Amino acid sequence: MSLNIAATVILYNPKEADLINIExxxxxxxxxxVYDNSSKKTESKFILENEKIIYFWNGENHGISIRLNQxxxxxxxxxxxxxxxxxxxxxxxEKNLDSYFTAITNFLEKDKVAIYGLxxxxxxxNDKTLDYIEVDHLITSASIMNLKIFNEIGGFDxxxxxxxxxxxxxxxxxxxxxxxxxxxxxxxxHSLGISIEKRSPFSLFLFKKKLSLxxxxxxxxxxxxxxxIKNKYQSILPATIKxxxxxxxxxxxxxxxxxxxxxxVLNYYFKAKSDYKNKKMGKIID
Length: 286
Fold this sequence. Notes:
Elements: E1 5-11, H1 16-26, E2 32-36, H2 45-48, E3 53-57, H3 65-77, E4 82-87, E5 90-91, H4 94-105, E6 113-119, E7 132-134, E8 143-146, H5 150-153, H6 165-175, E9 179-187, E10 189-190, E11 196-199, E12 208-211, H7 216-233, H8 238-258, H9 262-277
Parallel strand pairs: 1-2, 1-4, 2-3, 6-9
Antiparallel strand pairs: 4-8, 5-10, 6-8, 7-9, 11-12
Helix pairs in contact: 7-8, 7-9
């Protein structure tokens, strides 16, 4: 049995290397839906002239949730049962993707699984790593969605625009009694960003810490969407939300402490709280 699977990738000002990443999985899927959030159309013969690829662009940035909903609905309409969702900076080794598809094909409780995902920190795989585990959530990149239950789960929440979109969908799946499965011994290539060493005024600049920092706009979405997701699922998934809030708060506080634009980040942090309180969701409006 082979998977009846399509794939989607959301582009945003892609580099040549991002387009090359597509080649690592294109031959393994029956169709690829490319949604381009760039203001300028991607002029690539590889994208525009490949028979497997359907390209969508209208010059606007629609974020992540809207595009993922469009991809899922299009794949369902075209008769696919599964959808591989990829970030533009992610890729596969061929044998790993083959192993991934085989693992899903052989999984005994496929009807109970909303999303499958993989390990993206290769160094975390060792002899004690389990073949698979149930997890609270999975990242968008390299996830494979069970489209047969997409409508039952309710799709991706378009209030979120970016950040937390994948988490929210996974929590929605849990709330409906479905599982999110991570295959622990299979990895893919995923960019984690550039780590830098920084000192914080909160430690009187005495200690350096290695970390990845986000933009002030990203902190806005992280904070606002954390409050939204917390309120949405707290009564249904209290333990899961407690862990989620703790992790998100840690990430946000770390970025505030070490940012080169401390006051800008702080301003967006408080704007996020205000916008959430006033029910201003979707794309940020300055």
